[in-house]
């Protein structure tokens, strides 16, 4: 088993729905294929972008199986299995492992603010039931809980919790992870507008939905930093930052779906209560994409 | 139909679990009975206190039916039916109406931050499918979205959205609701430490889990304000404030369960990842309860 | 010496400037007289409303002397003597005592965030140099430091620190002060929109600039609470709340000056960089005052 | 006149006091000389580090003159002239220009939250009275006002406002400045823990008190980024980050004075209410410095 199977750009697919708001698995596989062939270094279904919390258990399982089949080992897969209860999290983690996932991502969802001990016990309970590695994910904006660096350190003591994804948007957290936990800890950036700063701070990878729209720019940024080419990295980053900020500000599922439409790709429907971007927001996105790609879009 | 069926103290039962973390319906009914006979003016199952989001659909339905049967019309019932997706919210709202609930409470749960338009459409979709009144519930700490007074005003334009529950903890919100929406809008306080200030500001009722532990003090506070007896209200409030702050700070399900145990009542188990209070926290709670009731507790 | 010389409505005069932005002492005395004769229970020059930090030492001394002379013992006076350095704070505190002030108010101004020990030493150093009582003032929005209830408790151990003014806008702070420090601690509310809730929570007084514009409503609210007439207090509060919120939102010196002009009184000029309200803001204020007083204003 | 006279490391001296808390100009010049000879690219007296707001007008003028004389043109000087009132800010800006400063730094100090229009008028009034360039400084933590990127854009339209110093600690602000205002806008980082990320984002310089303690590491980091040597920059940054975080967390004047003492240099006294670090804090600082310099310190 590879304990840290990811580096570079880890792409997050959306979960598309049909006109009756049912999951469209066929379209999902098509969108997944685009991510693989356009150079992403890993694939992460059932993340925030994939509206994990809005799906039924059966839908999550279908997405998981479709991902493993479609990716077919070309790049490693990271399956989101987060759930409010420990029991359900275990259920989905085991399902992902059995289906062939390379790793699972777990965010400590919380309705009631969890204590540090509850969070550790939660990860521990899941970790004891599977053998594949776990990426612990900190994103206070969606989970409602902000795991302190000290807590992340505790989680890393659990044998198969081997990776940290930080989406709090604070570059100091990454400085801390690198400084306190040593060069060998694998941490990943989940905050799109921090892409450059995080790679420079030593992040192993970038967890992002952006490859649905601008895969080359994402991968080129990673390569520029790898090649120690700071000037090029800076230019590549400033070329894509407006898009990175836009998709975060508008909500990834809404923004990616609208962007796919602009690029001439079918992104399916959203599930209520989520609604499409307004026409003004779509126009703004079209302009950002036009500036980046130097193309004029009709739709 | 009574469009505003609640006033006074609306009590929130916990959802107790057995040692296998299954819902214990028998114990739930027993705890419910305590709330009714101790003078609460309304009963609200499946709230935050009742760990709604940690339950399966079947468990929610069982709790709903058990509540209607046990309360048996002695006081009005307010059933929580919130869900991340609109479809599921409609499902549970219809179930509650069919089961005989007097009203439903809906908080706009959000993983992805919802826009105002999405929230309005969400309530509108549910409201159009049921006939009983809806209490719209604002609690940024648990839902992740803070509904502005302007948005609450829009929600009140939906015919059967007739009540607002405010738990943001800011007394100015209640001043705004009373001032802007007029004396006829029914607003309820969901922030325990604001109990006195909210009643004085004109709140119709107090949504609280405290009657599980100190029902008389809760009801007496309401009566003192009703009787224009400010000095007594102040004394009653200061007598219970430490408990009100404690149960909020520690998380209502954890704190109520621990408090029931101290009072010699069985509160069942919690569902993971939630864990019991530490023994130090329980001792602190025991001291608070002893000071209030002037009794010494063994457990 | 009266250790707690204040209760009820403590009025804050503005410091008016002439067209060259020099302090206009003649006009200041005129505005002060209005506050005394309209029923305020105390007068507090050189507060935030009086733009204390924008004045030179000489100007502060002139204001202090003018206040004592004009008020002439009719009501007690509370002189603001806060300064960034301990040495200057002592200087002004001694000046106020010599001039005949009944008490001084001190907020721990801070450019560099002060530690609790630094704040205690600061108050202690001043207190040891004067005999009149000190009101410790907590207002994070203007001072940049939020004194915790625990720190306020420490300050109250200094013999002549006998009063607390709380302007953090959080009613829970007042609950804490009353609950933890006992019924004998004198605490005052400095947050205008909390006026009703604070009196109900047991505040001894209300420190406010509002009597420059609506003295009767302010005093009537206090009296209603004193008379245990909750319904009347509620009505009086809701009648004035829009004004209370407006003057806080726009900045007290700007708003009071504009309000005086609307009422036909000369409020003088502001000192740069402070500028008058925009004409749209003034219109808004005129409408609020018209609604309250049932009069039409020309200016 | 050079409109953008600074790049690289701009060093901030502390203002030392004698045992009577009077400014010690002789010691100040000695500390200044250390900064110049150790390679700093610019010198900025009367900043936050130099406790500007705690000084009298005469003291500020003495510091200004001493700086110009001691630096003697070896590197450019940036004199802090911020004041609450516009009139005083103009006074000190003119004094600095006459004394020979290369530029002045102005932060919009505010007791009353200033409107955007008031801030623009404040800078405009000062700018019209001097010919040397102005660095506009954004630091919400000390000034109490957070200038939005849009406001900073407006300030840059004033002819001699040619530089921006950003200390809000948010790397996105620098991305915005570079992206929206173009490559030609000179922006400087004032947040020590952002040193690496800010240089990578394109900052022209780093405004910092750290050269009082570790001048070589500061300058080497700048040079590494200039030389496009990302790996070296990362190593140099992680070597100094603990010190950078410590001096910010403890307050620059307190921490620099303690650090100088550890290094065997006299940093003088602080002015009350500021007090020295506790002995425990000093020990922590000694350990950080020992780790960085690989030396053992006695004091």
UniProtKB/TrEMBL annotation, chains A, B, C, D:
Gene3D superfamilies: Aldolase class I (3.20.20.70). The keyword Lyase applies. SMART domains: DHDPS. Transmembrane segments: none annotated. Keywords: Lyase. The keyword Secreted does not apply. This is Dihydrodipicolinate synthase family protein. Belongs to the DapA family. InterPro entries: Aldolase_TIM, DapA-like.
């Amino acid at each position: 088993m590879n304990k840290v199977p990811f580096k570079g750009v880890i792409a997050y697919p959306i979960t598309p729905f049909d006109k009756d708001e049912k999951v469209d698995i066929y379209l999902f596989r098509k969108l997944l294929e685009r991510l693989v062939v356009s150079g992403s270094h890993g694939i992460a279904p059932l993340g925030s972008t994939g509206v994990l919390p809005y799906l039924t258990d059966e839908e999550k399982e279908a997405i998981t199986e479709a991902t493993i089949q479609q990716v077919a080992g070309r790049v490693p897969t990271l399956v989101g299995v987060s759930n409010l209860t420990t029991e359900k999290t275990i259920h989905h983690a085991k399902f992902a492992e059995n289906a062939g996932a390379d790793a699972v991502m777990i965010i400590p969802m919380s309705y009631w603010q969890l204590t540090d001990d509850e969070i550790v016990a939660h990860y521990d309970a899941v970790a004891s039931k599977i053998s594949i590695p776990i990426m612990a994910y900190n994103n206070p904006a969606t989970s409602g809980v902000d795991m302190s660096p000290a807590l992340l350190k505790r989680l890393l003591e659990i044998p198969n919790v081997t990776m940290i994804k930080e989406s709090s948007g604070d570059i100091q957290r990454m400085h801390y992870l690198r400084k306190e936990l040593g060069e060998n800890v694998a941490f990943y950036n989940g905050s799109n507008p921090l892409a450059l700063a995080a790679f420079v701070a030593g992040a192993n990878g970038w967890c992002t939905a952006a490859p649905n729209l601008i895969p080359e720019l994402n991968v080129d940024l990673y390569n520029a930093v790898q090649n120690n080419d700071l000037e090029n990295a800076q230019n590549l980053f400033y070329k894509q930052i407006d898009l990175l900020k836009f998709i975060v500000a508008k909500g990834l599922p809404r923004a990616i779906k609208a962007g796919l439409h602009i690029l001439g790709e079918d992104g399916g429907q959203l599930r209520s209560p989520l609604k499409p971007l307004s026409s003004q927001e779509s126009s703004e996105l079209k302009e950002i994409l036009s500036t980046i790609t130097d193309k004029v879009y009709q739709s």
